[in-house]
């Protein structure tokens, strides 16, 4: 297990280097001049003298290889530069906004798991029953409706008409309900059907028949054996979506004015805040790598049949 974890951690290095190189190349291929953007945001007329001074201050007048190496060394020290808009260190801004995104991500994941596991499990146990038909309808609805439209529907009916929850912002638990529900519905649609299919497959396995012939109680078979193995594909999906949620649920944060990392990234795009964009790309890559590693370790702990040489993550 330790050697497997060590190999996966070492694999992070080339992926991180590729992500940094890709973001660096894309930014320099952009027709936008960072020096001109910096002066424009500061409401300063960009003359040639000022542009040359800003390029020198940012190191943009150096060869590309030198710029890449220097930026890479700064990133290793969590130094992503200074925001063009706020004039504050980018990493400090990210750390300030990350708790809001973490709160929204974990609340959505917990809500999705608490609802999708019983629905998916009982849909398989009582195949073609009332619960199964309800889960199909819920999956169809959750997979079809866009998140931004669902968010506006919830705001209109539950906030504007019924006045049950706040419309926007972050504060009490009531502010968390609508954005969490908006994110969780799409996850519930996927996980409930994924778990249902996996449970039905496990019920056809020989170990289930063998356990029944031994006289083991059906509750023990279903809960201790079938569900434990059948939930493995769902954990994989959770790991992928957790990385996505932790990197900032952009649409939902914009709809509900949630002060998280995703909304900060959208504002940086509109303002052409290049240091923030570069930090976002690298942070998202690292989050997906770590989440996939955690998912692989959880799957190996739950299902010993999974080999330790490779893994299911990227």
Description:
It is a single chain. The chain is mainly α and 314 residues long. 75% of the residues lie in helices and 0% in strands. Helix 1 runs antiparallel to helix 14. It is flat and about 85 Å long. The two termini are 18 Å apart.
Concise structural overview:
The protein is mainly alpha-helical. Helices cover 75% and strands 0% of the residues.
Strand content: under 5%
* Radius of gyration of CA atoms, rounded to a whole number: 24 Å
What is the distance, rounded to the nearest whole angstrom, between the alpha carbons of the first and last residues?
18 Å
What's the main sheet like?
Answer: none
Provide the helix percentage: over 70%
| Weakly predicted, low-confidence segments | 310-314
Structural class: mainly alpha
Total strand count, please? 0
**Overall shape:** flat
**What is the averaged pLDDT score?**
82
Topology:
Elements: H1 2-29, H2 34-41, H3 48-58, H4 64-76, H5 90-125, H6 130-144, H7 147-161, H8 174-203, H9 206-213, H10 218-230, H11 232-246, H12 250-255, H13 261-270, H14 274-302
Helix pairs in contact: 1-14, 2-3, 5-6, 5-8, 5-11, 6-8, 7-8, 8-10, 8-11, 11-14, 13-14
């Amino acid at each position: 297990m330790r050697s497997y974890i060590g190999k996966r951690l070492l694999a992070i290095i080339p992926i991180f280097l590729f992500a940094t190189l890709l973001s660096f190349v894309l930014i320099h291929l952009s027709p936008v001049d960072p020096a001109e953007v910096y002066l424009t945001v500061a409401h300063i007329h960009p003359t040639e003298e000022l542009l040359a001074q800003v390029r020198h201050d940012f190191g943009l007048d150096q060869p590309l290889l030198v710029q890449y190496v220097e930026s890479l060394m700064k990133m290793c020290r969590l130094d992503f530069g200074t925001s063009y808009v706020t004039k504050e260190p980018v990493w400090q801004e990210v750390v300030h906004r990350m708790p809001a995104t973490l709160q929204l991500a974990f609340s959505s994941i917990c809500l999705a798991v608490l609802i999708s596991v019983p629905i998916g499990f009982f849909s398989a146990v009582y195949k073609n029953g009332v619960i199964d038909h309800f889960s199909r309808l819920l999956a169809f609805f959750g997979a079809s409706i866009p998140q931004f439209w669902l968010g506006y529907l919830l705001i209109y009916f539950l906030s504007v008409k019924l006045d049950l929850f706040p419309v926007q912002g972050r504060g009490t638990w009531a502010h968390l309900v609508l954005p969490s529900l908006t994110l969780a519905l799409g996850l519930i649609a996927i996980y409930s059907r994924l778990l249902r299919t996996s449970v039905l497959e496990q019920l056809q396995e020989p170990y289930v028949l063998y356990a029944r012939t031994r006289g083991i109680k059906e509750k023990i078979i279903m809960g201790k054996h079938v569900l434990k193995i059948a939930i493995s594909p769902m954990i994989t999906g959770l790991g992928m979506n957790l990385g996505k949620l932790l990197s900032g649920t952009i649409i939902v944060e914009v709809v509900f004015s949630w002060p998280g990392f995703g909304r900060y990234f959208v504002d940086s795009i509109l303002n052409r805040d290049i240091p923030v964009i570069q930090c976002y790309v690298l942070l998202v890559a690292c989050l997906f790598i770590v989440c996939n590693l955690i998912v692989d370790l959880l799957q190996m702990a739950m299902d010993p049949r999974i080999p330790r040489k490779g893994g299911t993550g990227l």
